[in-house]
Amino acid sequence: MPDICPMKLQNDLVLRAARGETVERTPVWLMRQAGRILAEYRAVREKAGSFIKLATTPELAAEVTVQPVDLLGVDAAIIFSDILVVPEAMGLPYEMIEQRGPVFPRTIRTMADLDSLHIADPEEHLGYVLEALRITKQLLAGRVPLLGFAGAPFTIFCYMTEGRGSKTFSVAKKLLYTDPTFAHALLQRITDSTIAYLKAQVGAGADLVQLFDSWAGILSPEQYNTFSLPYIRQICDALKADPTVGHTPITVFAKGAFFARQAIGQLNCDVVGLDWNMDAAESRLLVPNKTLQGNLDPCVLYAEPAQIRAEVAQMLAAFGPQRHIANLGHGVYPDTNPDHVRVFIDAVKNA
Ligand code: 1CP
To answer: What is its main location (predicted)?
Structure first.
């Protein structure tokens, strides 16, 4: 097993910004930077044969994790994996269909279905991600921080019940109304698995962990307060209460949940992720004591370089130089020109 003794980071801007310390410049990285836009990624993906093979081969996952650091100059690496490895580790395997995305051949919609699942044991069921983190840590050699991540329980619930991606996740949402007891039981089991998993990620070298609540925006504020926020709170509290993990910053990104910014800002987390519908000044008022991450519209990267630079300047001015980690408001789109991604990154770094 590679040695993972703590190494002093040469560039710890993301971590210092996350903790609210003063930074010389705004740090920048991109959600979904590791698996979408680079020809170099597609070459490794081809060599692996499939997404799942790539994600479960630690050496290859580590290689594509480091690519954006080398090729784009981002201030952080995010481990190459997927949020759906947690359901799989709980006993619900997924398949990745080319051009379509993930599918669960079996779904979890009743208490009887739930009985077939266990709480994920990270070392036993997710050891390949932990090994990828350890190898990545070595490859990075302290150049930039390594970010771990997991899906927020409600977003994972969506995929486990619906069985696939959806615009409305109406099967998942229906269960919140028709069988809230079951919904809470499944959410709790996902939460317990996620706490163990994120702790293990930190143990394997993750310097910060981000929760992706990608489908938060389909819930009403009341439903969000009932079915999503309490589970995110449990995760934040559990990590912060653990003496070996508590120092690790936590980012909560709840896409579309503009109504929940204030409540998320009061969680035991360090950074609140914003999508591009969320106004910077308003978000500062709602979340006065935490670092904000985001939030350029990913479509800005389709524009000409001059416009990308202008939009970046506007974003940086709106957030101010401190307590901000520059990013897009959601993952970079797969058909984005990597040169335009570099324009975005350089515009932040040279501001
Ligand atoms: O892209 C990267 O930086 C690599 C790591 C990464 C991350 C952070 C992947 C690899 N997936 C994710 C997170 C993820 N996965 C989220 C949360 C972030 C977000 O909202 O974008 C979600 C919702 C998923 C689920 C998922 N996995 C989808 C969406 C399905 C839908 O329609 O609802 C898809 C298409 C995937 C597949 C996937 N995950 C990652 C890659 C590179 C791919 C493409 C598969 C391939 O290469 O064949």
So the answer is: cytoplasm
Residues 91-122: tens digit of each pLDDT: 999 999 988 999 999 999 999 999 999 999 99
Residue 117 C-beta-side C-alpha neighbours within 13 Å: 29
Mean pLDDT of the chain: 97
The encoded tokens of residue 228 equal: 């999503």
Using the structure block, give the residue that is written with the tokens 């290689």.
Answer: 63
Percent share of the chain, pLDDT over 70: 98
258 DSSP assignment: G
Would you mind telling me the total number of residues written for the chain in this entry?
A: 351
pTM of this structure: 0.96
Give the residue ranges of the annotated binding site for substrate.
32-36, 82, 159, 214, 330
Q: At 164, which amino acid appears?
A: R
Burial class (CB in 10 A: 0-12, 13-18, 19+), 71: middle
State how far the alpha carbon of 104 is from the alpha carbons of 83, 94, 101, 159, 339, in Å: 13, 5, 10, 8, 35
Place of tokens 């927020």: 152
Mind giving me the DSSP string for 156-178? HHHHHHHSB--SS-HHHHHHHHH
In eight-state DSSP terms, residue 334 is T
Distance from C-alpha of 316 to C-alpha of 52, rounded to nearest angstrom:
37
**Mean pLDDT of each 10-residue bin along the chain, 351 residues long:** 64 98 98 94 96 97 98 98 98 94 97 96 98 98 98 98 97 98 98 98 98 98 98 98 98 98 98 98 98 98 98 97 98 97 98 95
Ranges of each domain in the chain: 13-349
Q: What's the gap in Å between 227 CA and the centre of ligand 1?
A: 23
Pocket of ligand 1 (CB under 6 A): 32-36, 45, 51, 78, 80-84, 96, 101-102, 149, 165, 212, 214, 331
Q: Is residue 45 among the annotated active site residues?
A: yes
Residue 273: beta bridge partners? 253, 293
Which CATH code is given to the segment(s) 13-349? 3.20.20.210
Catalytic residue among 41, 94, 134, 159: 159
